[in-house]
Design a protein that fits this description.
Elements lengths: L6 E9 L7 H10 L3 H14 L7 H10 L4 E2 L2 E6 L3 E7 L3 E12 L6 E12 L2 H28 L6
InterPro entries: DUF2867
Protein name: DUF2867 domain-containing protein
Organism: Caballeronia sordidicola (Burkholderia sordidicola)
Length: 159
């Protein structure tokens, strides 16, 4: 997505064979079943960044409520395909995209169903680069926790 990202990562988890193939439904499920500590972490983040004029999760939630079909959780939907949904947000310090991609792999590639969540961030300035440096460890914990939690609860099944 970006020629020179300041952050690019991807995490993959195996899906049950009967899980839905709809990436939007998978993304909505994962983001709506996050652990309580993630919400608490977002509130701390909001308190810290509000003074810098950055978008807060609270602000994004209010906007998302008014355009529910164009958002998943607080994230704007940028693109939808059969296998992938791309979410994200643009702000003065950075732009980011989150891809939720589901695939069925051939037996030669490990076989089975997989979900990959990848994030790409492009910083615009020193504030963005400092922000990414500080939040990257938390970002990794949040993504991994969200995927594990969804798996423990049980991914939505194909109808």
């Amino acid at each position: 997505m970006y020629a020179h990202p300041n952050l690019a990562d991807a995490y993959t988890i195996r899906l049950p064979d009967n899980a839905t193939t709809d990436p939007e439904l998978l993304a909505r499920f994962m983001f709506s079943h996050q652990a309580a500590w993630i919400g608490q972490l977002l509130r701390v983040r909001d308190t810290l960044v509000a003074g810098f004029g950055l978008k807060t999760a609270k602000h994004l939630e209010e906007f998302a409520r008014s355009e529910r079909e164009k958002h998943i959780s607080i994230f704007r939907i940028y693109e939808r395909t059969v296998d992938e949904i791309v979410l994200g947000e643009d702000d003065k310090h950075l732009d980011f995209r989150v891809s939720v991609f589901q695939e069925t792999r051939a037996e030669t590639a490990g076989g089975g169903r997989y979900l990959t969540v990848s994030t790409v961030v492009r910083c615009h300035n020193l504030l963005g680069r400092t922000y990414i440096l500080l939040i990257t460890p938390f970002h990794e914990m949040v993504v991994r926790s969200s995927m594990r939690r969804a798996a423990l609860i049980g991914w939505p099944t194909a109808s």
